[in-house]
Amino acid sequence: QVQLVESGGGLVQPGGSLRLSCVASEGTFSSTFSFATMGWHRQAPGKQREWVANINRLGGPFYTDSVKGRFFISRDNDKNTVYLQMNSLKPEETAVYYCNGLGGWGKGILVTVSS
Question: What pLDDT, in 10s, does the model give residues 53-70?
Answer without folding.
Answer: 999 988 889 999 999 999
